[in-house]
Amino acid sequence: MAGTLAEKIWADHVVRSAEGEPDILYIDLHLIHEVTSPQAFDGLRLAGRPVRRPDLTLATEDHNVPTTPGPITDPVSLTQVETLRRNCEEFGVTIYPMGDAEQGIVHVVGPQLGLTQPGMTIVCGDSHTSTHGAFGALAFGIGTSEVEHVLATQTLPLKPFKTMAVNVDGDLADGVTAKDIILAVIAKIGTGGGQGYVLEYRGEAIRNLSMEARMTVCNMSIEAGARAGLIAPDRTTYDYLQGRDHAPTGAEWEAAVGYWETLRTHDDAVFDAVVDIDAATLTPFVTWGTNPGQGAPLGASVPDPALIPDETEARAAEAALAYMGLTAGTPLREIAVDTVFVGSCTNGRIEDLRAAAAVLKGRKVADGVRMLVVPGSARVRLEAEAEGLGEVFEAAGAEWRLPGCSMCLAMNPDKLAPQERSASTSNRNFEGRQGKGGRTHLVSPLVAAATAVRGTLSSPADLAPLATATGEEH
Amino acid sequence: MEAFTSHTGIGVPLRRSNVDTDQIIPAEYLKRVTKSGFEDGLFAAWRRDDSFILNNADYAGGSVLVAGPDFGTGSSREHAVWALMNYGFRVVISSRFADIFRGNSGKQGLLTAVVSQDDVELLWKYLENEPGASVTVDLASRTITAGDIVAGFEVDDYTRWRLLEGLDDIGLTLRHEPDITAYEGNRPAFKPVVAPG
Predict the structure, then answer these.
(1) Is the domain of A342 the same as that of A221?
(2) Which of A187, A255, A267, A469 is the 20 to 30 A CA-CA neighbour of A409?
(3) What sequence ranges are listed for the domain Aconitase A/isopropylmalate dehydratase small subunit swivel (chain B) (predicted)?
């Protein structure tokens, strides 16, 4: 069948199509959490409607859970979490609460359980649902009214998205990661560049990424304004999935792979837009401003708004520099940070923690810098501890926390103070996102760890080499 | 949902682009479990600045917000729409809206009217020169009228029809419940389930 991957998945999920009306699209998996679901359940209750498919619905507590041991102290957060638990009980929905072995950030939990599979439609009341597109699923964030709609009908009325190919060809240089790819994509097309589109990431550099790195890329599709981002499934995808709790087995595995093999953009398919990026030109990328499109290579300097030709953008840059407390022309490498955050649905998976730990091993977090490492899920935390990563973080002077969304959006007690500056592996550098008045620089886990050591925005290449093992021992 | 045909109210010029939903309502206000009472969090950070437009008494009771491009980007939080509506806004005018925000708005009865940036500039100038002036937004004719300004706006036909009729989305879909059941009967067995149904 002709068409792009996104169009094929769409076509396979149309329940009803009529001229002049949105298609009714079937939803294979609905993920929910405590913040965007209470009003949806309330709507069901008011209308006397049940959850149509509790067996296709999964809840986890993530947005406002504390990452230090002990109960939730904020009464309002507690109300949300308790409301979610009550709603799941009443409507028969599976929930992984705080302290459960499967609890974690909703976009880390789905993939690690094997619930996220190619060709599925996946929604959640959270814009970073695009993460699941890494498996070749059509996955996107929805609002609370839509959450209620999916709970009641397991469908959504939607108008087709446009499709955009993002070709990332060539090889990435050492020390350049998925996060750098996606920050460069956003800087290139802008925070509105993907509006109305599903982005399909293609090309050699994408094919060579691990599943977790692909999730990082797809995760931030929303920061480019896109509804979703996806990557065609391949051997890397199948290998990641095989043997996971909810992955098919036996004859069903064969049937599933047979179907997944058909999930390709047809050679003759035409995208509505195309963007090309040469992976070989990419370097570690960081943001300097207050939207994710305001980024630059780490080797660059803070831009001069007066040199930005577009007037609206120039004004936005000026306001961003004022908020960020930055002066045009300052080399980005000279910007000193107070806090380093490693975690979130963007970079809170085991590979991210391994990357950060590899840089921190044998090194110390700089004096006066606070570093928080927050695993994306309870499983990731266990895995990291089994590998000794927790000890590496603590030995370096970082805080090794319990899983949750944490400082990515500061709904729990993990916040920046006014004017405090962070290097953060999360996804949004909006004003106040990490705490009122806080200043955020978005970075990769490698840059985050190197920044923690030097105290200024840095890549691992900026660090003094460690003494060799033989020289240190005895 | 309340039907929307035409609305006349005080226009508020918001000279900012890329107004993301964290600015419309910061995360700290998202902890409620109801759909009302979010007006106190609307543009909370900016409202601490005395010179912010909503702190100008001339624009008190404003119900038509005129904003720069890429309004409503970022987080999918529907609280952004509730906050705007709880505050009293019925219409947001911009040259470009983020997709999720526009979808959320349509479902709650907040009209997102798309006009050219030139028209936004005209409306900004008019509303700044005539603080407290009214803007009329007529959904039937898709026309915005403010002083001498008459501008057409875009809104997709389906959303317009639903707004004009005040129709609830879930009820509309459930009219096709047999189609959903038929589709479910044909789903491949290898599709995962969270727990036995």
Answers:
(1) no
(2) A187
(3) 1-115
